[in-house]
Amino acid sequence: MRALRAPARCFEGVAVGGLLKGVSKIPWGEMRDAQQDPAGGIPPLLSRIAYGDEQAARLAVDALGDVVCAMGFVVGQATSPTVPFILELAGAPHTPCKSELLDLLKSICRTEQWHSAAAAAIYQEQCGWEAAARAAVLLGRSVVEGLASSLRPEEAAPARELLWVIDALSPFPQL
Fold it and tell me: Which of 47, 86, 122, 137 sits at 20 to 30 Å (Cα–Cα) from 18?
């Protein structure tokens, strides 16, 4: 027997219910994503992950990866505010794509694109985005640890990989 979820209400394409309660408090329209486009498309993607069917959720995770960690190694201004919602979804019992979410967190945590190019002073703001995104992932360690002890290998293995990445991180170079 399949567990039923409470119906989600939608507000401008964003589900409002048990998950993602704080999404509407973030000024998405004032931020840029990893592709330097307006970040207003992030809330609907999070909503599709939370409340869509498995196929819709997987497609939304893929699209979310493109806008919060472009090419798997470039973060944007909106990345760090998105991370707590990714962690929330990864820790939610009925999210169908936990492995993909954990892989996205791993990519975010590993980013060093802007710090690598920081010799040019014009990248100072982007270095802050990277540091904030990594810090947001590190703050969610307890969620990842819980998933690492899951009896479901499709959740536990990527969670353990993310923990290994977190533990092996070198600090960013001083600017």
Answer: 137
Q: What is the pLDDT of residue 175?
A: 58
pTM over 0.85? The answer is no
Report whether 34 contacts 64 (CB < 8 A): no
Alpha carbons 110 and 74: distance in angstroms, whole number: 10
CB 103 within 8 Å of CB 145: no
- Write phi, then psi, for 39 (nearest 5 degrees): -85, 10
Pick the closest to residue 63 from 25, 20, 100 (CA basis).
100
Please give the structure tokens belonging to residue 56.
């819709």
| HEC string for 46-99 | HHHHHHCCHHHHHHHHHHHHHHHEECCCEECCCHHHHHHHHHHHHHCCCCCCHH
Q: How far apart are CA 101 and CA 89, in angstroms?
A: 8
Q: Could you tell me the two tokens for 64?
A: 């979310």
Are β-strands 69-70 and 74-75 bridged in parallel, bridged antiparallel, or unpaired?
antiparallel
Q: Of 66, 64, 87, 61, which Cα lies nearest the Cα of 139?
A: 87
